[in-house]
Amino acid sequence: MVRPKTWTTALAAAAAMAFGAGTALAQGNTLNVARVIDADRYDPPRTTARSAGDILFLIADTLVALDWDLKTIKPLLAKSWSVTPDGKTYTFVLRDDVKFCDGRGLVADDVVYSIKRWVDPELKSPVRGRAGKVKDIRAKDPYTVEYELEEPFGELLFQLTQYFASIVDKASVEKLGADFGVKGFNGTGPYCWESWVPRQEFTLKRNAAYKWGPDFYANRGPAHIERMVWKIIPEDSTRLAAVQTNQVHITQYVPYIALDQVMKQPNLKTQQAQSYLWTYYFGFKVDRELMSDIRVRRAMNHGVDRDALVKSVWFGHATPAYTPVSPDTPDFNARTLDTPFKYDVEKARQLLDEAGWKPGPDGIRVKDGKKLAPVFYGINGSPARQLAEAVQGDLRKIGIDLQVNLFDATIGWGKLATQEFDAFAMSYPYVSVGDAYNLYFRSAAAPTPNRMNWKNPKTDDLLARGTAAVTAEERRRHYDEVQMQIQEATLWLPIIHEQLHLTASARLDGLRAHGIYGCAIYKGLDFKFK
Do the strands 375-379 and 403-407 form a parallel or antiparallel pair, or are they unpaired? Predict the structure, then answer.
């Protein structure tokens, strides 16, 4: 493994290769942003990519916003809202001063169109369910929207803060057709679409009319920065070189191996997000022969040293995970931490002995002539490879021979949709317990994203009751119970709860990392150069 000090020796060469020796990207009041990958399109309800959210949060707005704590809902396009006692109808009162980038004023019909487009079955949105079971959405007057549900949906406001709930311009959608979000976009965000060269860079220009930003920004708009250029720099060393030599001004993708070093560099500054809900885990297909015994799944949980993984893979910049969601998550049940599967090699071996798996001559456990060698699938890249190799090494100590198969993302998602593996690795963002558990543990979510094939009527009932609960107390009661059930069932091997850091030039004021969907810049309204 490369040691941190060796990064510095390659900085000048790497930056020169990427941008041309001695040529800085900064031109005037332009903020240059480094990221790792691009998205295939920027159409809010048609993508789940974080890389799409990076841009969509800047060029579009949602009805409501999520504060830095990821718990508090704040006004954005809607200046106020109310909910009927049965929890089925939300009334949103819109601001009357919002403008799209083309100068047209936002009205209630735009909200109606955007939400109906999101939930339209013909659009086949992968996040359609996050809008709730919409009965109707209608404009009562030019600045009032009624959002009627077939049943209560306690997650609605949280979901309406996410980029896939962005309000779009009907004329732009109809004009561009299949190229909407590919060749253009007309939104109400603090920035407007200027140009996109796929897999290279995305350029945004300031929306001079913007003045309706969330109140947790000191600057409500317009943005101080005139232009943003988002550069795709997939190579860790090149991206790090660009940041350390101020060839780019800001990134949330400093390699973990170099983060401590970067934090000490006087020409840079780093901010950690106040709250960030993104978890890495291994999942088990519980209907596969090798994973069907809960004792094997629990042994694997006890057999992995999460503290060592935090040090070796994340270089100390993560938190060991023993539950499917972070303790910072809204509606988290702290009782799930009472019985965590702490690292305990002897306990792991004891469980495998009880399950009838005995060590073979090579140390790998055998039962009925078959080795305990579960097939593992994952997406290649950093830190997935280091994580898989480290877990593989830990499990060999207890007699499990994890068969690691990592695939390029171009085919990996297809592989993960099959039934030919026993265990898999994934990481994911979420905004609440209901969001996470409904996504992964409902029977209807199998075979993907419920790749565990967990089909349990009690789980389904508790999630349905929690989701439809009208009061917070009722919702918590059902969600508390389902969290305990899933913890006991040991469907996952939670690995770490990730931390989010935003690193920028010391010349940039207003630096603060937001944790929403892993998109640290969010609206970027307070950024300005000294």
Answer: parallel
Q: Which of 46, 276, 77, 73 is nearest to 164 (CA)?
A: 46
**Residue 485, SS3?**
helix
pTM to 2 decimal places: 0.91
Give the number of other CB atoms < 10 A from CB of residue 477.
14
Per the structure, the complete domain to which residue 452 belongs is given by 278-498
Helix intervals (H) in 279-383: 294-303, 306-312, 345-354
Task: Give CA–CA dist 403/295, Å, rounded.
Answer: 19
Give yes or no: residues 305 and 213 share one domain: no
Whether residue 216 is found in the same domain as residue 305? no
Instruction: Judge whether 3 lies within some domain.
Output: no
**Which residue from 109, 95, 54, 56 is spatially nearest to 220, judged by alpha carbons?**
95
The alpha carbon of residue 510 and the mean position of all alpha carbons in its chain are separated, in whole angstroms, by 23
β-pair type (250-251, 268-272)? unpaired
Count of positions (residues) in the chain? 530
Distance from the Cα of residue 69 to its chain's centroid = 15
pLDDT digits (tens, 9 = 90+) for 113-153: 999 999 999 999 999 999 999 999 999 999 999 999 999 99
Report residue 28's pLDDT band, with 50, 70 and 90 as the boundaries.
Answer: low
Measured distance CA(390)–CA(341) in Å, rounded: 18
Say how far apart CA 481 and CA 493 lie, in whole Å: 20
Q: Of the candidates 453, 516, 482, which has an alpha carbon nearest to the alpha carbon of residue 323?
A: 482
For residues 334 and 376, the answer to whether their CB atoms sit within 8 Å is no
Q: What is the rounded distance in angstroms from the CA atom of residue 98 to the CA atom of residue 81?
A: 17
What 456-462 contacts at long range (C-beta under 8 Å, 24+ apart), as own/partner pairs, is 456/485, 456/489, 458/485, 459/485, 459/486
Token output for 63: 């009805």
Nearest to 102 by CA among 223, 206, 188: 188
Which residue type is seen at 132? G
